[in-house]
Amino acid sequence: AKQLGPGKYRFFIADMNRRNAEQQRLEQSLRRALENGGIEVHYQPKVRLVDGHIVGLEALVRWTDAERGVVPPGHFIPLAERTGLIVQLGERVLETALRQLARLHHLGHDDLHVAVNLAALQFQQPNLVERIDGLIHASGVPAAALELEITETTMMRDIDHAIAVMTRLRERGSHVTIDDFGTGYSSLEYLKRFPIDGLKIDQSFVRDLASDANDAAIVSAIIAMARTLQLEVVAEGVETAAQWDYLRRHGCQLAQGYYFSKPLPADELELLLQQNAPG
Ligand code: C2E
Ligand code: CA
Ligand code: CA
Ligand code: CA
Questions:
Q1: Which of 52, 57, 120, 144 gives 173 a disulfide partner, CB atoms 3.0 to 4.6 angstroms apart?
Q2: Could you tell me which residues come within 8 angstroms of residue 43 by beta carbon, excluding any fewer than 6 positions away?
Q3: Which residues belong to any copy of the EAL domain (predicted)?
């Protein structure tokens, strides 16, 4: 451990206490938001690169706190995971996303699917599949319209469990995608073993496509590999026309990113879908 003078040590403890206190306040506020409102879901379109057609949505949780304003997911998702609140939060996102998708289907956008992120702790819940069944049933949308995004790290925690859960989800017709692909530890070997429908290339590789030859090579290799394994590929974090063109030229099917649209509240998404509809 680092050598700290007595004064520094006291300073360190004080700082730690302050941070713990703030974390506890944040946790309390998040609990209250789950009960009294403040949690919403936004949707980012997943778009076909060849023609700009919206084929799906990713549901992303949004929290607006009365005092703090908008709290970024990067601040409260880790806290929710540590405290177990993620199970309730994740279920809220699933329920909301399925309900709002049902409305979009009724409006005529009936080919649309929605992807929901599953946290590691949710994935470990023994009754996860039954809970998802219940929410799908209540919403009235077909199981095939739901996609679950799972990170490599979550999958690798308990491989046999992951394979079993993914298999059951896919038996129902739902799709399973690996999120943040390239940032974890899964090898080609695992890619072949896991029952998955697609993968999402992490935005860290997409960001510098145009300027970094290594990233460009990694991205085109992932696309080629995914196509060989007949997996759907989504590139995340596409912000520029140059990235869009590169991905399309290298055979990537789908993209998500600010270049096309940021995540939108349900009503704004509805308007965008009306403009995007062919014919
Ligand atoms: P993620 O699943 O990788 O989601 C993609 C993130 O990239 C989102 O951030 C999205 O807003 C952002 N993004 C989309 N397009 C672009 C772009 O062109 N450029 C840049 N720089 N960013 C872009 P967000 O909404 O802040 O979420 C961050 C992370 O928090 C997510 O990463 C996910 O890990 C977690 N998260 C968000 N919502 C949920 C949820 O409902 N459940 C769980 N378990 N995790 C969630
Ligand atoms: Ca995701
Ligand atoms: Ca991602
Ligand atoms: Ca991420």
A1: 144
A2: 57, 58, 59, 60, 97, 100, 114, 263, 264, 265, 266, 269
A3: 23-277
224-254 b/e (C-beta count within 10 Å ≥ 16 → b): eebeeeebbbbbbbbeeeebbebbeebebbb
Whether the pLDDT of residue 279 is over 50: the answer is no
pTM of the model: 0.94
Q: Is the CB of 152 under 6 A from ligand 1?
A: no
Examine the pLDDT at 160 and tell me if it is beyond 80: yes
175 near 148, Cβ under 8 Å? yes
Do 235 and 201 touch, CB atoms closer than 8 A? yes
Q: What is the rounded distance in angstroms from the CA atom of residue 179 to the CA atom of residue 191? A: 12
CA distance 71 to 170: 33
pLDDT digits (tens, 9 = 90+) for 222-275: 999 999 999 999 999 999 999 999 999 999 999 999 999 999 999 999 999 999
User: Which of 30, 40, 60, 206 has the most ligand 1 atoms within 8 A of CB, as the residue to mutate?
Assistant: 60
What is residue 278's predicted lDDT score, i.e. its pLDDT?
62
d(CA 80, CA 85): 5
Q: Quick one: which of 247, 232, 239 has its CA closest to 147?
A: 232
**Residue having the nearest C-alpha atom to atom 21 of ligand 1:** 237
d(CA 95, CA 67): 26
What is the per-residue burial (b if ≥16 Cβ within 10 Å, else e) of 53-73?
ebebbbbbbbbeeeeeeebee
103-150: per-residue pLDDT in tens?
999 999 999 999 999 999 999 999 999 999 999 999 999 999 999 999
Q: How far apart are CA 256 and CA 240, in angstroms?
A: 11
**173 with 144: CB under 8 angstroms?**
yes
